[in-house]
Amino acid sequence: MTGKYFGAAVAACGVLLFVLTAPAWAHHSFASEYDADMPAKIQGTVKKVEWINPHSWITIDVKGQDGAVQTWEIEAGAPNAMFRKGFNKDSLPVGTEIVVTGYLAKNGLHRINGRDLTFPDGRKLFMATSNPFGEDPEKKDK
What we know:
Layout: H1 3-26, H2 30-33, E1 34-50, E2 57-63, E3 69-75, H3 79-84, E4 97-105, E5 111-118, E6 124-126, H4 137-140
Parallel strand pairs: 3-5
Antiparallel strand pairs: 1-2, 1-4, 2-3, 4-5, 5-6
């Protein structure tokens, strides 16, 4: 193989390797971003819901004790997992007041890995969390 073709083959392999591994970089483990020893409960108003893979995201506005509003991002399970738990695209209209329990981000950002979501009427849904230590309440007694 001549130098010209060898260089092209190496470049093609490099591009292929990047394309195949890039999706793995986008997905992260629970432990790399969240702390199972830092449970939290937040209450706020739904600002945005994104049904995207590999995780759904809910953005809420949380009013602090001083009256200042902070925007929080809640990481939930994949859309398919959320749908299987009872969510649908109309479950969380913008403006809905919700309470979320979950685990705080290690880096101090206003981000939480959601575990349970409670609606104003008291209904609770498990958010298909990626926390390997969190139990699905539906599987708890089975």
